[in-house]
NAD(P)-binding protein (Lindgomyces ingoldianus), 345 residues
Amino acid sequence: MSPLILRRLRDKFWPEPLPPDKSFEGKTVLVTGATSGLGLAAALHFATLGANVIVTSKSLTRGNAARDAVEKRANIVGQGKIHVLELDMNRYSSCLALVDHLKASPATRGGLDVAVLNAGIINAEYVQSPEGWEQTIQVNTLSTTLLGLLLLRWMKEHRPDASRKPHLVFVTSRDHIDPDIHDWPRWAADDGILRHCSDQKNWPSHQIEPNYAISKLLVTYAVEEICNMAMGADGSMDVIVNPVCPGLVFTSIGRAIAERSIFMRFAVPIYCSILGKSADYGARFYVTAACTSTTDHGKYIQSLFGEDEYRIAAFSNLKSGNALKVKALVWNEIITELKRAVPTL
Ligand SMILES: NC(=O)c1ccc[n+]([C@@H]2O[C@H](COP(=O)([O-])OP(=O)(O)OC[C@H]3O[C@@H](n4cnc5c(N)ncnc54)[C@H](OP(=O)(O)O)[C@@H]3O)[C@@H](O)[C@H]2O)c1
């Protein structure tokens, strides 16, 4: 049996416990993409632990349904602790509008204690976003990074409680260790890595999850930069930043893959039922990430790998000489694009 399958089985049957005795009473938590799967489960965890939770959705109807479900299951109907805001990460303008709404909203009362950037997609077919990028790269990489930067700036300046550090959590994926980045310096010198991956003629339709692993590696590079930016002018840490992977969780994110063929329609649910864990278990990692201390700043919160195993598995994409070069190239492309779109960034 492959090591990955063994890891997934271990992950399924030894779930992450919720941090013991953790209370989020009086804290405000943002969860993006909270209408289904991991985001919905995370919103429920945080609400059950006492938090005021702001959930986002592309559609207010779906967002309101998620709010009603969380209120009912957390037994807090009528308490006004769950709030819904609109967010469509296909557009930068929607990311900017979300942050403006958060700043103005009485629900945030001066800031966020925790922001979990969870929204993400897998596409089976090539789709271009209105911003001109392949949609997986747009949502999982560019808009996630933009939101992260906008929130980081605000969270550094406005803390709901000066005595505790806010947490910024990026939901990535173990898949960031998979892409082969050897050719990326050449892509950078041609049209750019982001352009190369966004070009329809390079769409890897033969892959089960085209561009997904690449989008998660790109955002992992961005998160490393954002970790550095979370330090204050005096070298102390203003915001604790963590990337997190929930492990394989049976949610609707695989629906586009399941629709690719009759075989996949059966194979995806079977694979996910055997190896995938529940959204409740997966979302516990988000709570863990929201409770880290300053010494864990930047740490990748996950359970598939032991720390040494992860260091080895991630070496070629994160720490090798080529990886460091590629990371700098990617960050330069991402920040150039985001500053073009949002000059005030
Ligand atoms: N499931 C897994 O095994 C697994 C493993 C590792 C990492 N992850 C990551 O976990 C996160 C959540 O995935 P999931 O499995 O819970 O998937 P899911 O059930 O499909 O949920 C995705 C959420 O993202 C939102 N969303 C989709 N497109 C959006 C857009 N353009 N703008 C804003 N929000 C958008 C959706 O809400 P609306 O359509 O209502 O806006 C939905 O609530 C993703 O980042 C995924 O990559 C999942």
Q: What stands out?
A: The longest strand covers residues 52-57. Residues 135-157 form the longest helix (23 residues).
